[in-house]
Write a structure and sequence with these properties.
Number of strands: 8
Number of domains: 2
CATH class of the largest domain: Mainly Alpha
CATH superfamily of the largest domain: Recombination protein O, C-terminal domain
Strand content: 15-25%
Distance between the termini: 55 Å
Structural class: alpha+beta
Radius of gyration: 20 Å
Bound molecules: zinc ion
CATH architecture of the largest domain: Up-down Bundle
Length: 259
């Protein structure tokens, strides 16, 4: 039995298949991560209205049940994110976001909150609504919360002492334990990074989903750097691998003299 379905979707990955076809991986609103075959997509660019570009948003019409993979019948572009594409750093961030989603999400499991997060962050990156680095922090923190990997920033993971009772202005974090390690416990469980108290307090609410609150807040450059450094180690740790796009982003920052 064949079933036809339509869904909004963001393109995560495209791979050539045979002489004429493409295998496309989308993150869709109604079915989560899906892989589709786009027949003759390389032979005729008109077949799917020209470009099938990474991290663009589409409305898809698909057909299941005719073979191993569902077939893409039609794709209508909803948002091409042109401003992202005209800016190297924004492109690097968007590539990082879709690579994380492609590696993190299970096939065929709808994740509407995560879809909304990815769409919102790409849209704001495109509109220049918030600084690029801040959007990356919000994306990664929110994804960790939705996925149940939210770092424990409230108590020491070993002895459960409250964060406010911990000594020192920089507090250790252990990734395997999933959060704070106080100085008394650091001989038993060694911290992998240290964050300042202020950064931890800000990270605690960065994944709150309240865009107005995030837009009104003031973040120091040091806090942004610390948060990025932490999340770009914490997220790959839980992903089990280092996204390729992260090295592109790091190389770009190094060339810009941003460390
Ligand atoms: Zn402790």
């Amino acid at each position: 039995m064949t079933i036809c379905f339509t869904t909004p979707a963001i393109l995560l990955r495209r791979v050539d298949f045979g002489d004429n076809d493409l295998i496309l991986t989308f993150f869709s609103l109604t079915r989560g991560k899906i892989s589709l075959i786009a027949k003759s997509a390389r032979k005729s660019r008109k077949r799917f209205c020209g470009a099938l570009d990474l991290f663009s948003a589409y409305e898809l019409v698909c057909l299941t049940g005719q073979g191993r993979l569902p077939v893409l019948l039609e794709s209508t572009i909803q948002h091409p994110f042109c401003q992202i594409r005209s800016d190297f750093k924004k492109t690097a961030y968007a590539s990082y976001f879709v690579e994380i989603i492609n590696n993190w999400m299970e096939q065929d499991v709808a994740q509407p909150r995560t879809f909304d997060l990815l769409y919102q962050v790409l849209d704001r990156l495109d509109r220049n609504d918030l600084p690029d680095d801040l959007l990356s922090i919000v994306f990664q923190m929110t994804l960790m919360i939705i996925s149940g990997f939210s770092p424990n920033f409230s108590t020491c993971c070993q002895c459960h002492t409250e964060m406010d009772c911990l000594n020192g202005c920089r507090i250790g974090i252990n990734f395997a334990k999933g959060g704070l390690i106080c100085s008394s416990c650091s001989s038993a469980v060694s911290p992998m990074v240290y964050l300042s108290r202020g950064t931890i307090k800000q990270l605690q609410w960065m994944g709150c989903g309240n865009w107005n609150k995030i837009a009104r807040a003031r973040f120091s450059a040091q806090s942004i750097q610390e948060s990025l450094g932490f999340l770009e180690a914490f997220v790959p740790y839980h992903l089990g691998k280092e996204p390729k796009s992260l090295s592109v982003l790091r190389q770009f920052r190094a060339e810009q003299g941003m460390g």
